[in-house]
Amino acid sequence: MPRQEPQDLLDDDGRRRLLPRCLADDALPTDVRAGGAITLLFGPSTERLCHLTPEHLKFGDKHAHLVLGHHPVLLLPRLAQLLRRLAEQPELRPQLSRVRPGLRWLFPGMVPGKPISTHGMTQKLHRTAFRFAPRATERWPPSLPISPARSSPT
Fold this sequence. Notes:
Elements: H1 12-24, H2 30-42, H3 46-50, E1 57-59, E2 64-68, E3 71-74, H4 77-88, H5 118-127
Antiparallel strand pairs: 1-2, 2-3
């Protein structure tokens, strides 16, 4: 059976056009801006994006990092602000069951205590004119004007 590839891949020009919008367009919801920017810069799968928690964020005096896997990546200041806002927002839906107390999501779903579904996140991004899928062959887009630096928190 042939492998199905995404039909609408975003080219580098589209990525360069969308990144500033993610970082600066206050008309877009914060979660869409942050999710879009993370995807454009670092290319995680939508499932991995949806399962990010505030514990994946490391804020220092000068820099902020997002821990993806075992490696912290340096965040652009505007993206760090968006993620801090998501991390500090109050829970909109109290958990009915405290099976895993204290677990919070940067991108909470409709079910209390669960993250947004991958389908739900994809739909949110598509509804706001983000039509992209991470490229299987690239971790970071090669020609973005801003190249994220890999470093450890200090």
